[in-house]
Design brief:
It contains 19 helices and 19 strands. The chain is of the alpha/beta class. The protein has four domains: 200 residues; 106 residues, 2-Layer Sandwich (Beta-Lactamase), CATH 3.30.450; 166 residues, Histidine kinase-like ATPase, C-terminal domain (Heat Shock Protein 90); 114 residues, Response regulator (Rossmann fold). The protein starts with a helix and ends in an 8-residue tail after the last helix. The strands form four sheets. Strands 1, 2, 3, 4, 5, 6 and 7 form a seven-stranded antiparallel β-sheet that branches. Strands 9-11-12-14-13 form a five-stranded mixed β-sheet, covered by helices on one side. It is rod-shaped.
Length: 730
Amino acid sequence: MKNDSTYRSGIIAYASITAFMVIAGLYLVVEARFETSVRELTTLVGKNNEVWQRISSLSAQLVRMSEDKRLPPYVQNVIQGELTQLLARSGEIMTATDSALATTSSQFFAQFYKARLHAIMKADVKPSVKNYVNALSVTPSNLLRARYSSLLTVDAILLNSGAALNPLSEKKRTLERFHDQLSARRVPMGLVVLTVLVTSVWASWFGLLLPSIKRARERETQLMAAEERSRVTLRSIGDAVIVSDISGRLESMNPTAETILGYRFSEVKGQRIKGFLKLYRSSDGRPVADPVEQVLHSGTMIGLANSTSLRTKTGEMRLIADAAAPIKYPDGNTHGVVVVFRDVTDEYALRHTLIQSDKLRVAGVLAGGMAHEFNNALAIISGAVEAIKSDGLQDREHTRHFSMIEQAIKRSSSLTNRLLTIGRRSDVTSAPVDLLTVVEHAVEVISRTTDRTVRITLDCTLEVDERTVNGDASAFESVFINLGLNSIQSIDGPGLIDVSLQSSGPPPGLNTDETRFVKVIWKDSGGGIKRENHDKIFEPFFTTKADTGGSGLGLSIIQSTVLAYAGKIEMESAPGQGTTFKIYLPITDQLPDTVAITTFDEHVPMNGKILIVDDEPSFLALLSEFLSGCGYQTFAAVNGNEALEIFTRQKDELDVVILDLNMPNISGAELAQRFHLEQPRCKIIVSSGYARSDTDVTTPIGDVYMKKPYELRELANAIARLLPNTTRDQ
């Protein structure tokens, strides 16, 4: 409102001042014109007065010379000729004076001075004097002497005395005074106009210009602040921003753009953006059209194609995403282009990693399910073999074959444990392990299943107490098999893998209280590893063998396993010089178990009632037959509903429930909890093809856990420990 009032006041002031100035200017122009006309009249009257002054002088000279009889004829002719010319000149001046008077009388200001002006202009030489002079100009010399020998006429007297010219002189003086009065009147008017003009200028300054200047300064300050905010915002934006002018040349760019492109703004300022913003299609490497030129041509926003790559100053290719848009002013025309993009290289890599991780998760779930089913099958095979052996019908050759089957079952069980590890269903187990035995077995597996042209040597002089470590034998075996496979893949043609076990102190950089370590040195004669990959080989999914199906997980799992058992792994390699891995593991004071402890005696009959719950009919039948042969009364259920029915009827008499955790309808964990609540006295043995972990059950259940496949003797021992007082008379 205040600004609107100021504008209205300023407009009114300017309108008033302008009107006054126009009127005053017109007044001054009209008055100046009238004054000029009066000055012209004064000039004409002065000229006529000068002419009659000359006429008076010549007339007196002509009369005097004729009276003195000293008037030669040729002199008379000259004087009379000049008088004739002067009279004609006076007539012309009078004509011009009459015309000027008419013009002056028609002007605006003449209305105020018309009467006075005409009164002034009436004064003139008497007509009789003019006639006298005219007569002199044509009178012959003889007549001049006779006629003008004495002063006989009044006109001659007036002319000779100068009285005849007094009207003209007075007329001139009056006009000059009138002109001076007009000039004197114009000066105050000019001063008034000047005063009003100065006043209006100062009024405009304080009333309108000064507030306008203040507003302009405020707007300038606001614009500067907005520009600074824009610069700060531009610098703080996480995306790269590039701004071009109408010709596609760089005007500005933020620090993010400098970081991604590798160019400083001062390096490329004013250059065409397409000269340093080099875009390519990631799919085939073909150049992408300049987005700035596209926007300037179309005047619309465009988006960059998916998987667009940017070549930086250093030649590095980075994946980018986003768009370019025109900068349009209120006039609707495009005055530049802004390109906004962000570096999505790491995002794409993370997305790829997540995809790979998801694939591994799915593979893990599948592996876990397969391992569970495989363990169930192995449990049936193991139980059947054990049952056949217990019949005592086989000969020595059959006994050897059954031993081979049992070894195969144990090895297959170890393989399923590795599948379960992939499926994230197994806990880290730890027991004393003879590392030499593990390495020997791994070398044997590698030698039988891979390229026989690669020779493997094993050297160890350590005693068993110097090479025993805490860990999982299967996990350690997997470590060395993976190392062997990597070594063989790196060897082109015949080669050598040299493996040795040595005593060692703590490895450099490992923070531990242990002082005794065993060091496994695994050295091959392969092609080696490039130096730039040394820091990446243990990263998940990093592989130099992607074209041959490498997943990049082998060395990562090896490192995870070694670290899980408080060890350390080191690598030394160079192209063409092979690769050496050094694995350090702390030595334990315990020794590996060599003798299994059993309490079961098949010749001592047992008693008690046992409920067996398993969804595998063959395994269920096998357990029922075995336990019945041991003297137990058994009940069988293939699902949770049947188990509940039997338990409800027999819960007061049941001694043991053998329960598989992975059951249809009702899970084994839920059944175990219900059985325990309804009959706490009843012992529960839970089993599963999965390794026991927190993912299987949410609360501790069961008195004994047995992982499939297990030996029937182990089950009988477990029951014997749970029911120590159920033996019949021996």
